[in-house]
Amino acid sequence: MSKAPGHQKWPDHKVQEQHMGQRFQVEINGELIADSDDVIRVEEDQHPPRYYFPRSDVRMELLERSATTTECPFKGSAHYYHLKLGDETFEDAVWTYEDPYEEHYGLKDRFAFYNDHFREIHIEGA
């Protein structure tokens, strides 16, 4: 685990994490995908708020790991998953940080959902 190069290079860029302390659910196209009372809300400059759910509270049988990865200079390498609901596949719609930078270690192995990948997504509690 190492320090985030982004925080060193752009110290004014804010990435704030907050444990919500309440129950959150993700429902997509009428199907419950995640349900947890251990959610971290991340607010990052120039990005919409994202909610990170523990792996144990996400229906992993609906996810299929993709080959896509991206690099965030603040949080680390993101690994993506396709979400399969019935006959529909939402590509690279879910991501996780398996080995985040030290400043955001609390996000390790948590999953977040791209709201804009779905026609109908509801994050209850948000």
Summed up:
The protein is mostly beta strands. Helix content is 4%, strand content 51%. The longest helix has 5 residues, at 5-9.
Provide tags for this entry:
126 residues; globular; three-stranded antiparallel sheet; Metal Binding Protein, Guanine Nucleotide Exchange Factor, Chain A; single chain
Summarize the structure in words.
The chain has 126 residues and is mostly beta strands. The chain has one domain: Metal Binding Protein, Guanine Nucleotide Exchange Factor, Chain A. Helix content is 4%, strand content 51%. The chain has one helix and ten strands; from the N terminus they run H-E-E-E-E-E-E-E-E-E-E. The chain has one helix at residues 5-9; strands at residues 15-19, 24-28, 31-36, 40-44, 50-54, 63-72, 76-85, 88-97, 110-113, 121-124. The strands form two sheets. A seven-stranded antiparallel beta sheet has the order 1-4-5-9-8-7-6, with no helix packed on it. Strands 3-2-10 form a three-stranded antiparallel beta sheet, with no helix packed on it. A hairpin with a 2-residue loop joins strand 2 and strand 3 (31-36). The chain is globular and about 45 Å long. The model has no long low-confidence stretch (mean pLDDT 90).
